[in-house]
Amino acid sequence: MNKLAIFDCDGTLVDSGAPIYAALATSLERNGFAVPPAAVSRRVIGLSLVEAMASLLPDASADQHAQLADDYRQAFIDLRAAGEVEEPLFEGVAELLDRLEGDGWMLAVATGKSDRGLRHCLDRHGLHARFVSLQTADRHPSKPHRSMVDQAIADSGAAPETTIVIGDTSFDMAMAVNGGATGIGAGWGYHDPHELIEAGAVAVADKPADVPSLLREHLHG
């Protein structure tokens, strides 16, 4: 049975907090809402856009959530066109991908990004071809629904018991649990380690280089 490592993108593969916050601020201001501190906004990174807006503004209407999501998408496109989107790989991520592939793992992505946004991000870093399955918010319910995990497993010929999810948010870890996979928290991302454990992570890596040893410990090879 194939072994599959599913990565979140924002906050796990790349540090995209700054452009996400900039696009969110533009969307909120355009619709007459106050912009929360970055520490509050980063709490919803990883959710699909409408769900993220609903979490930030629970008293707004469904139509307002949809409009905010649309305006966020356009703001992010505008930032990218202006050359203002920086999404650097976290230090050690490229080496982790090399290590996992060398150890026989297939690689996938499950993200709240759109197809377009994920493609731009991966192409910039020359990573697109390394992943056998790319699952985005365009085709799935928001995390923590298991849908993206299920599809990545189907695409790769893996099984839940041979699949890990590496992500930085409680949504990622809950998605792993819901899909029968093993969650490894990315402690270098946007949620606190204790939240990742509470959501179902079997362990939290302080840095990417720590992931392989945690896999050996918790998956026994």
Walk me through the structure:
By secondary structure, the protein is of the alpha/beta class. Helix content is 45%, strand content 15%. The protein has a six-stranded parallel beta sheet with strand order 3-2-1-4-5-6, with helices on both faces. Helix 1 (17-30) packs across helix 4. The longest helix has 20 residues, at 62-81. It is globular, with a radius of gyration of 17 Å. It starts with a strand and ends with a helix.
Question: Can you summarize this structure?
Answer:
The chain is an alpha/beta fold.
Characteristics:
10 helices; 6 strands; alpha/beta; six-stranded parallel sheet; 221 residues
Structural class: alpha/beta
- Total of helices: 10
Overall form? globular
Kindly provide the radius of gyration, computed on alpha-carbon positions and rounded to a whole number of angstroms: 17 Å
Q: Show unreliable segments.
A: none
Main beta sheet strand tally, sense and closure: 6 strands, parallel
In round numbers, the mean pLDDT is 95
Report how far apart the termini are: 13 Å
Order of helices and strands: EHHHHHEHEHEHEHEH
Determine the strand fraction and express it as a percent band: 5-15%
* Main sheet: strand order: 3-2-1-4-5-6
Helix content: 40-55%
Assembly type of the chains comes to single chain
How many beta strands in the DSSP annotation? 6
